[in-house]
Design goal:
The complex is a heterodimer. By secondary structure, chain A is of the alpha+beta class. The chains are: A alpha+beta, B alpha/beta.
């Protein structure tokens, strides 16, 4: 069984811990006087961040947990408050005194530490990577994030389900369409309706197009990180062109506000571009395959083994590149439209690089067969109280969404971004590499910081 | 690799005259006011990554910012200008201040995106601190497109 998420919500009678697996959902209620529960981290290592987050935000203690350090509460964050509790309504905090964070340490003669971040050398989001080194070789890496923690979950509470739309679009800019689709899925469930076939097809087409843009950008940047900047010039040119097409069909370069119940897509315009892209990308593929020095760096670098991927419950591109068959799109609906799961073999940088190419080719074929003239629409306005879950496959991986509606307002919103899981498995991929390979490995995963930090 | 040598001129760009005009004017001003070289340090204080993606796009062949003498640099100590994006989270606050303090004077901050000015679509929470650094110029938008950033840079260069 794969653990998708472990999260908490406050009820009048106590704090409920919800464990979502791929096959079942388990709930346990904790009394306010005894906020303790057994840890899942011995079986599911990806639960470490989930539990540390619950501990920080709700004050729940996990029995037998081996890592009880704070996660979202950084050095200056007051440690004695539990901000996701209903009784906490403050919107302004003052900095507490500086409390140093205890890094995971490797001890030994000549071992030294290298801290990278939170502000990085390029144009990237903030996050910290803490290396323990013996010369060039990496002995250990600790990933520490949540610098971008904006408390989006709390921000959405006590709002009408339709009022949070703009926030949801902008949780993670690269995955906006995937977020909107999961959110609309929940709105449809809550209003007891189903999207018509034509709407589902149009949503899916936009999701695939977003994937194309993201992957195009990545193939340029991954090749740039081994010093082959010509690939970045071509990749970034193609992704810019794709973004302009996206603006033409959705009105926004990132598709903010694109998903609507009366969505209209000009497929003929889209197809012209896709034909062009297919041609350009075939050239790109042939060209880069002909450059051995690039593949010399890609191969045997940053290996995520299949065992580790399964153990951590890694999702998306990273999982499929290691040969793990996980994809939210792997269902009857998508299979009608030429969806074919692409799998890598070894989980190395080269596999993730290739997989992105293969996924773009597959997405092009899918968008072409997803096209429709249907105009059926539904109205989303009345939402029944209840608890709803949805998943969608963003360009990074499986996104999980949970909304509880109470008295017509959002009582709890929970998001598990694919990056939240994948970041935790990230450190397992670097043990056979040198520190100079780190930017390449990081880019080959291309995980989101904003989505993970929330 | 030599097989593809002949193909190197086949990919073409759809030229945009407006961008060319902005770029020429910007290049002249950078030469006049910054000795032909403007170094920018991009700092994200809690954005959704769209503003960063657009700043990255400035380096693609369509905008090619580097040919104007404008560079994104790896250290604040090499920078003239800080590009600041995001809502300024509680956890990023001290790091951004630290970065700002290390930029040698004279220094300027250009705000990228609505978030810096008024949090954009987001609302104040306990985890958001809000920006209180002095902003020289705002480039608004959610996110501002590369063209809007170019225009904003031009306005900034005229202003200082």
């Amino acid at each position: 069984m794969r653990l998708i998420a472990r999260f908490a919500q406050e009820l009048p009678e106590g704090i409920e811990i919800i464990d979502v697996y791929d096959k079942k959902v388990e709930k346990q209620l904790l009394d306010f006087n005894d906020l303790t529960i057994k840890t899942l981290t011995h079986k599911y290592p990806a639960a470490i961040w989930m539990e540390r987050k619950i501990q920080d935000e709700f004050g729940v203690e996990f029995i037998d947990a081996f890592d009880t350090r704070t996660l979202v509460k950084h050095e200056y964050f007051p440690k004695d408050i539990f901000p996701m509790r209903k009784s906490f309504t403050q919107k302004e905090l003052s900095f507490s005194s500086f409390e140093p964070y205890e890094w995971e340490k490797i001890e030994g003669e000549g071992v030294f530490e290298v801290g990278v971040g939170p502000i990085h050398a390029g144009i990237i989001e903030p996050g910290h990577f803490h290396f323990s080194q013996a010369g060039e070789e990496i002995l250990h890496l600790e990933v520490r994030h949540f610098y971008k923690y904006r408390a989006i979950e709390k921000m959405c509470e006590n709002k009408h389900p339709l009022a949070i739309r703009k926030i949801i679009e902008r949780v993670s800019g690269n995955e906006s369409i995937a977020y909107q689709i999961a959110y609309f899925d929940i709105l449809a469930q809550a209003s007891q309706q189903e999207f018509s076939d034509s709407l589902k097809r149009k949503f899916a087409a936009l999701l695939e197009f977003e994937r194309i843009i993201h992957h195009l950008n990545d193939i340029g940047f991954i090749a740039n990180d081994v010093g082959f900047s010509a690939a970045l010039a071509l990749g970034s040119k193609l992704s810019e062109e794709a973004r302009r097409v996206f603006e033409q069909i959705t009105g926004h370069r990132f598709g903010f506000g694109a998903i609507q119940t009366n969505l209209v897509i000009d497929f003929s315009y889209l197809n012209t571009f896709l034909d062009y892209l297919q041609k350009e990308l075939s050239f790109f593929w042939e060209w880069i395959n002909d450059i051995p020095s690039v593949w010399d760096r890609f191969d045997i670098t940053g290996k995520l083994s299949k065992e580790k991927a399964i153990k951590y419950g890694v999702v998306g591109v990273a999982a499929r590149a290691s040969g793990v068959e996980i994809d939210v799109r792997n269902n009857d609906f998508y299979q009608q439209f030429h969806y074919k799961m692409q799998l890598g073999k070894k989980g190395e940088v080269s596999d993730r690089f290739k997989l992105r190419f293969l996924e773009i080719f597959n997405s092009i074929a899918m968008i072409k067969s997803l096209q429709t003239n249907g105009k059926e629409t539904i109205e989303l306005s009345h939402f029944q109280d209840g608890q709803y879950m949805a998943r969608s496959e963003s360009s990074i991986g499986e996104l999980f969404f949970y909304i509880k509606i109470k008295n017509n307002l959002i009582d709890r919103l929970f998001i598990r971004d694919p990056s939240f899981i994948n970041w935790q498995a990230f450190h397992t991929t670097i043990y056979n590499d040198i520190i100079a390979d780190f930017p390449l490995i990081n880019k080959s995963f291309d995980l989101s910081y904003a989505g993970s930090d929330l | 690799m030599i097989r593809y040598w002949g193909k190197r001129f086949q990919t073409t760009l759809q030229e945009d005259n407006e961008i060319q005009v902005i770029k020429q004017e910007l290049k002249d001003l950078i030469k006049k006011k910054f000795g032909g070289s403007l170094a920018i340090r991009m700092v994200d204080s809690g954005s959704c990554n769209a503003c960063e993606a657009e700043c990255n796009a400035l380096s693609n062949p369509y905008y090619n910012l580097e040919e104007l003498g404008i560079h994104f640099v790896a250290s604040p100590r090499h920078a003239d200008v800080m590009f600041l994006s995001g809502v300024m989270t509680f956890n990023m606050y001290h790091h951004v201040i630290d970065c700002y303090n290390q930029i040698p004077a004279p220094k300027y901050i250009i705000a990228i995106g609505d978030c810096v000015k008024n949090l954009g679509v987001f609302e104040k929470t306990y985890a958001i601190r809000g920006n209180d650094l002095p902003i020289t110029h705002y480039i608004l938008g959610c996110p501002p497109s590369p063209k809007e950033i170019l225009k904003g840079l031009l306005e900034f260069a005229k202003k200082v």
